[in-house]
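Retro notes - structure team

What went well: the batch runner handled both jobs without manual restarts.
What didn't: labels got mixed up in the shared folder, which is why I'm recording both outputs here explicitly, each with its sequence directly above its tokens.

Job 1
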Amino acid sequence: MSLYEPEIICETSAAAGDPEITRRRRAAYTPGVSTELRYEDKYDLDFFQSERGGHDVRYIVLHDTEGPTQAAISWWTNPENPYQSSAHDLIDKRGVIWRCVPYDKAAHHVGYSHIPGFNEFNAEDDRWKPNANLSTIGIELEYPRWPDSPPYPGAQLQSVVEHVRSLVLQFGVTRDRIFRHADIDTNGKTDPRNFQWDWFLDQVFSEVEHMLDETARHAAWNSSGIPYNPEAAFSRYARLHDLGKPETQEFDFGFQGREYRGQGFSKAIVYCEVGYWDAIKELSW
């Protein structure tokens, strides 16, 4: 099978139908969002794919289908497809993620692409080597054929943000290694069209950066032997009032028949009656 393909297009058609959807919890936490990612596994179909040849996943590339989901699925499994094109995942307009090619395999989606620092043009073979497919994950967004250019549905945008965020965390992909097909293709491709690129990257990485901060904070607390609970009332209060690092674990004490809990931080001691976490008091050492 060829790793090279000039364009992922949908030249066949199929009757659209609602897939039998598998629902799974989101891989990454988003404050205030309780949605679930919805998956339709298609790994049993014969999609064009190749071995990665020892290359690790380092990049993510977004495309659009220029046609309906079912047409894309049919094209990527069609023996008459001269480009042998495919993608790892396809996110339809409802936000359902169709999983086509496993991530340990190379999908055929960026064969004629140049990724600076990864591949160089080989004039003898008229190819970019190594092939960009070997180290990328390809994600297609269902989108109508040009010249139609409607806005992407909210459900689809939410899914692509959360799905790509989960891949970023799984494979350690940095912001500068996520591309549009148009960014790296050498044949003038323009997909994904009409996509809010900067907004998308901000949505993905603002939460990743928040998770990184929380991980660092967790490690710092634990290095002192004090368990870290980011939702604990005292730790939230200490961050809000800039009380510094924890100096003690939480401690309990009684006074006039009532139970209290407190904790010492660098700049102050905080305490309150147990159960009255919105009435924290602060005193100096």
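Job 2
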Amino acid sequence: MAQYGNRIDHRHYTDWLQKPSAQRLLALEAGWLGDWLAQLDGEQLLYAGVDPAPRFLRHSPMSHVFTTALPWQSAEQVAAMRMNPDAWPLMDQSLDLVVLQHTLDMSRRPHQLVREASRCLVSSGYLIIVGFNPWSFWGAQRWLRTFSSELPWLSNTVSAGRLCDWLTLLDFRIESVQNIAHLWPIKAFNEGLSRRIDRVLMGRRWLPGNAYLLVARKTIAGVTRIRTRRWRVADNGFTIPAPAGCSPLP
């Protein structure tokens, strides 16, 4: 199937992780993700994302929490398994929660990635997605660096609005969409103050964030049960069908 966007490999990813701005973003998102994970119960949690050591997963009360490594991550990435993002080696409805931290930004087929997450989630399971916001100050900077060969400018962004449309078609209910990282990657005086400003502004709708945190819940469409017809014998000896509750023939 066709692929779109920029091809991202482990060199782009590794180089980006060395930058202070990347470490600052991961630290901010770790706090916000940890708060959400502490609220969600279940058995199986899968994490696939850019954080090489997602310590915030310890906040989850789920009994089995595991991480995956994707093709754009280095072979040394510590994870429970490596997988093809377009075809997850997992059974249908086997997960209670999936966390995708900037995973769509790294993918050339983000829609297929979302479909695989939907397939593996149980009914009423949760999907948490963190992504860069293309309609923000950061997005304007990215547009000015169209020909850059470095992350995060090389990322293949999906807006929160477009993602909501995809999830709605896959029978998800959007629980929350929060604007985050309003100040990032700009630094205000010092690192501590910059992080504090971003935490205070988190979720403010009047100011576009440079990233978003979306939480959706998988639902199952309602099914109307078809009432079975009853059969009765007429006085003439023939058997004829009639709707349930119909009065007897004279």
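One thing worth noting from job 2: The radius of gyration is 24 Å.
We'll revisit the folder naming next retro.
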